[in-house]
Amino acid sequence: MRPKPLEATVMGSWPIPGWYEFYAGSVRQDGSRFGRVDREEAVRDAVGVVVADQLDSGLERVTDGEVQRVDFNLGFYDYLQGIQRLSSPRLWGAPGHDQRGKYTAMAPIEAPDGLGCVEEYRRFRQICPTKATKMPVPGPFTLAGCIGGGSVYESREAVTEALLPIVRKELIDLVAAGVDFIQLDEPSFACHPQEADYFLDVVRRTLAGIPVYTSMHMCFGNYRARAVGWRSYAPLFPAVGQAAVSQLAFEFASREMTEISLLKQLPETMDVAVGLVDVKNTWVEPVGLIVERIEQVLAILPPERVSVTPDCGFSQTPRHVALGKAANMVQAVRQVRAARGLAE
């Protein structure tokens, strides 16, 4: 399902409601306090809340806010067999990416029960049966970034190769469950652009034969609202235009629209999701500023190739701020459509 022109959507995640974060912490402390029905009730209620937030904001393509998982990718390691979690090298001081969970391979990596995405999608569709949606799934190269090879795999590339069929099977199962828009989250490419040919081959093999609209999200990291790499897309161009996807998703707002002209190098068949509100900033961008940013993009690309998004997921943004940003983003899209005579 190709997005409508200037479709206003989210990248994937939404702020976790405060009560649900308290509940999740309670489960981690003492899981015996909650039964199976209690847990199902809590997660369904959380999905319902974040869907309602997105619909109230006027967003046209919504998700479950990724509240059914831990971060955009950290919870997936719980589904993998053959890895062992390592102790964090730093527990105190300023929060940073070096505090993320790390693992080492102890045996060949397997995921006999999948990665849990199909269950997430089915629960979401029970709560939101008709609204346009997409399913974000972390790509194998990004997932491999938290797993050391140990004595099992000689390199990150070898870990990637082990994860690729696992991710691919999850995508196939999602399509069978009814998903028609898949977003492959691969921020690691933006942060490690040195092996473009290998990375593009990984993406091609991961998505080969997947018969739905596909997007690839490449940001510069947002763990605890912090970036992780040099924030320039220039090293990816023009190679990234060869990616075997329908759409590329970039962040521009946090960089004050720097490098927007790079979009001129993309082939005419490639759609783009442009991040035009900053998820790291607690300032709510005025509608007029977002309109100006949309017009900057439309000076380069026609509206039918453009979706309007936040820079990244909203999981690290205060909920009331995310609501304001999303609502203003939607209003800006409506103003541009009206000015250009585009249908709502």
How many H/I helices? 9
Low-confidence regions: none
Structural class: alpha/beta
Separation, N- and C-terminal Cα atoms: 17 Å
Q: Percent of residues in helical segments? A: 25-40%
Task: Name the CATH class.
Answer: Alpha Beta
CATH fold-level topology = TIM Barrel
Shape: globular
Overall tally of domains: 1
Percent strand: 5-15%
CATH architecture: Alpha-Beta Barrel
Mean pLDDT: 93
Taking all Cα atoms into account, the compactness measure Rg is 19 Å
- N-to-C order of helices and strands: EHHEEHEHEHEHHEEEHEH
Order of strands in the sheet with most strands:
1-10-9-8-7-6-4
Q: Main β-sheet: number of strands, strand sense, barrel status?
A: 7 strands, parallel
Q: Tell me the total number of β-strands.
A: 10
Describe the protein's architecture and organization:
With 344 residues, the chain is an alpha/beta fold. The protein has one domain: Alpha-Beta Barrel (TIM Barrel). The protein contains nine helices and ten strands. Strand 9, helix 8 and strand 10 form a beta-alpha-beta unit. Helix 5 packs parallel to helix 7. The longest helix is centred in the first third of the chain and has 22 residues.
